[in-house]
Amino acid sequence: MDFSIAWQKINQIAHDTMAALPNLFIGLLVFIIFLFVAKGVRAIVERVIHRREHGSESLKLLLSRLAYVAVLILGVLVTTTIVVPSFTPASLISALGVGGIAIGFAFKDIFQNFLAGILLLLTEPFKINDQIKYKDFEGTVEAIQTRATSIKTYDGRRVVIPNAELFTNAVTVNTAYDKRRLQYDIGIGYGDDVARARKVMVEAMREVEGVLTDPAPEALVVDLAESTVNIQVRWWINPPRRTDVMHAQDAVLEAIRNKLTENGIDLPFPTQQILFHDQTEETDGDRKRQREGWPAGAGNVPKPRAEVVRAAQEQAGRAEYQGS
User: Which of 15, 60, 98, 210 has the most neighbouring CB atoms within 10 Å?
Assistant: First the structure.
C-alpha cells in the first residue's frame, strides 16, 4: 500500500502551518492591541459624554459601546488580513453584497428603531425620569434603549414603545420646563356678582401652598352656559410632576369651594325645565297667545281646538238652515 501521497499531503500541511505561524502570532498580537485600544476609546467616549452638561447615561452607554464595537471590527479585519494575506475588505464587501441587501430588508424595522434611538439620545427631546405622554400612554421614562423606550405609567405598569414611533410622532413632555399651568372651569349662578366671585377665587388660590405668585393666579369668564356662568381659574406650580399636579389641584379646588360657600356665592346644579301640553288648544300656533305648557290655573282658559271646531261647524249648519 502506497502512503507516499498521504505523506506528501501531511508534509505540505505541516510546512504551510509553520509558514503561517509568524502571521498567526503577529495577527494575535495586533488583535490584542486593538482590544486595548477599543477599551481606551470606550473610556474616552464615556469621559467626554460625562463632561457634557446634563449628559445622558443612556447616550454615554450607547456611544461608548458603538465606539468599542467599531474598533473591534476594525481589529478583526486587520488581523484577518495579516493571517490570510489573500483576504481583503473588498472581497468581504463583495461576499456580503446580495446577502446584505436581504438582511437589510429583513431587519428594516430593527434598523429604523436603532437609528431613531440614536437620534433620540443625541437630540434629547426627553431624558430618563422625564414624564411624557404619547397617544394613550403617559408615565415616567425608565430607559431609552437602541430599539425602544420604556415608560412606567402612573398606575405602575410598564409600556415599551418603539423608538421610530416616538421620533416620528408628537410626544408631550410634561416635565420639559420647571413650571406648569393648571386650569379648571367653575360655574356660578347667574344671580351672583361675577367680579366678586373672581376676586374670591383668586384669593383662595393665593392662600394655597405651592401655587406660584409669579405668574399670578387668575380667574377668567369663559362661558355663559345654560345654568351657570363658567369661570376658568388658572394657576402655576413648580415642579410640574404628576403627583404635584394632583395635590395642587386637590388643594386649590377645595379652597375655592370653601371660599365661595363662605361668601354666599352659589354653585348651582344643572337645571332643565320641561313643559307638557297636548297642543289641542285654540291658541296653539299663535305665538302671542299660546301657553307653551304652563298650567292654565284659574281664569280664562283657552278652549280645546276640537270644541272650537265643533262649535264653528254647528254655527255654520245653523246659518245654512236659516238661509234655506
Answer: 60
